[in-house]
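Quick one before lunch.
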Amino acid sequence: MLRSVILAAARSQKVERLVETAPVSRDVVKRFVAGSGTGEALAATRQLADAGLCITLDNLGEDTLTAEQANATKEAYLELLAALGHAGLTAPKEGGGGVTVATAEVSLKLSALGQAFDEQLAEKNAREICEAAAGLGTTVTLDMEDHTTTDSTLDILSRLRRDHPGTGAVLQAYLRRTEGDCRELATAGSRVRLCKGAYKEPEHVAYQAPLEVDKSYVRCMNILMAGEGYPMLATHDPRLIAIAQDRARWFDRAPDEFEFQMLYGIRPEEQTRLARAGHTLRVYVPYGTEWYGYLMRRLAERPANLAFFGRALISK
Ligand code: FDA
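Model of the dihydroflavine-adenine dinucleotide complex:
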């Protein structure tokens, strides 16, 4: 119920204006967002890389409505990639089980590149970013948004993969279709991020009960770990992390043949613990000024995050 209210607020411009202008917002945002520009994103990336972690960077923004905005987002990614390359953060690491595993890569939302009003423009923008990434030895992963965009995103992904086979997909365990998508994508060289899913989805397309979502996550993880691709297990859930480690043993996957992913600011001690234990741990680092939708999804996931917001409010 609370999750639904917050996710509904995530789509409300009135609430957005209220939250953006609240004096507490800056403190709360700082916990989950690495800064507003390329310089701050680079500094956070360097710090995480020095701690032995890998990184995927997201220039925040979604639901872009004009070609100018979409092009500006593309330019921001090109600037970021150039800066990462210049700082020596895009070189592929050794191993990787047959796929490129770079210290830092980027994550894209196709809606930020124009998908809602011009799919071809979004694809063209994404392709330019993939080309720049490939030129620097790194990769791109296409984030997954609400279910109305899944087919379009997977279609664009398959076309991008013809030229850039390392382009990563994201599949959401809460969607009823995802087991089938996992089977399709568990092929050699294919990078697939599996997450639970962060949007408010109707019952006919998505499991609603957390236990059902978790069970679907395990079924999907089994398919990916048994397959020939490179699974990227994006979760903070200790139970799912333990099951993943068990499946890696069961399916004989070396630590460099899959990775864990977590969000910036969430369970940072666990992030370094897993990296020290020999796993590849990639932190999803969002940065930019358009943090509202992202922050609201994080608040919806966990009441403790809301309490954090409340405490910041009271202490002002
Ligand atoms: P969940 O939120 O159910 O938490 C499970 C357990 O994890 C908790 O019970 C607790 O034990 C622990 N935990 C969680 N947060 C904690 C905290 N702050 N402190 C301590 N313990 C905590 N979604 C999407 O729809 N499209 C996408 O493209 C992506 N991309 C993406 C990339 C990466 C790298 C990640 C990690 C996640 C995404 N997501 C996403 C978001 C994802 O779908 C999901 O909403 C969140 O990861 C939260 O789900 P969890 O699996 O962490 O479980």
